[in-house]
Amino acid sequence: MKANGNDRQLKLTELLIYIIGAELVGALSALIAGGDFSEYYLALEKPPYSPPAWVFPVAWGILYALMGLAAYLVSLRTHKLRRTALCVYIVQLAVNFLYAPVFFGLKSNVGGLLVSVVLAVLVTVMTVSFARVRRISAVIVLPYLLWTYYALYLSVGFV
Is the whole model's pTM more than 0.85, yes or no? Predict the structure, then answer.
């Protein structure tokens, strides 16, 4: 399947690699941080509009899949900014990976806040970069961008 003259051919195997790769980042981050975060989360003094603990794994599962899909669609484009956009994607994914080990593993609210600030900036840059290469990819990661700023709000509240 070929979308237009500016794209490489869509391949299901590559798409799955991008999605599973993003999901693995989240799974490994959680594993390194110690797995079940419910007890720690429940003990926190929470800001208003904090979700119940079960929302996080559901939301992150969806968001990682959307990230992988959006990055894959960018990778298909033969655009001069494609490589830059994908590099920003990888960097933000690495910073995203750090959150659970810092916040939950080390039980560092301040560390989690610092990671959240850096992540919010990187996800914003990634979204803009994706928009320049393939607008639909920016639309696909919009929920991630919004969730990142919501997580930043929560991190400020936890501190």
Answer: yes
Determine contact, residues 109/38, Cβ cutoff 8 Å. no
Torsion of Cα atoms, 23 then 26 then 32 then 37, to 10°: -120
Count structural domains, the chain: 1
For residue 44, is it within any domain? no
30-33: long-range contacts (C-beta < 8 A, 24 or more apart)?
A: 30/57, 30/100, 32/100, 32/101, 32/105, 33/100, 33/101, 33/103, 33/104, 33/105
Per-residue pLDDT tens for 50-88?
Answer: 999 999 999 999 999 999 999 999 999 999 999 999 999
User: Domain with 79 in it: what CATH number?
Assistant: 1.20.1260.100
CA distances, 23 to each of 19, 65, 117, 147 (Å): 6, 6, 22, 16
